[in-house]
């Protein structure tokens, strides 16, 4: 004889909803981090491809390249969210 449940399991439904929400938030955060990392690598590659003379012309030291690439990736993300 099958067991019939006449009420819904609110605690189970709310628990599953909470897990789904956490999963979606973490997935979105990971996707955003991947986008920022890709933009950072692109900027880093482009700046590293410049000659020392070109860098000197635009006022950038080779030691500043990682910081500039990071700041650029953050600016692009902020502009996208605005």
Task: Please characterize this protein's 3D structure.
Helix 1 crosses helix 3 (65-81). It is rod-shaped and about 80 Å long. It is built from three helices and no strands. The chain has a domain at 33-82. By secondary structure, it is mainly α.
**In what range is the share of β-strand residues?**
under 5%
Ranges where pLDDT stays below 50 over 5 or more residues in a row are none
C-alpha termini separation: 59 Å
Largest sheet: none
* Number of β-strand runs: 0
Mean pLDDT value = 89
Protein structure class: mainly alpha
Q: Helices and strands, in N-to-C order?
A: HHH
Q: Based on CA inertia axes, which overall geometry fits?
A: rod-shaped
Radius of gyration: 24 Å
Number of helices: 3
Helix content: over 70%
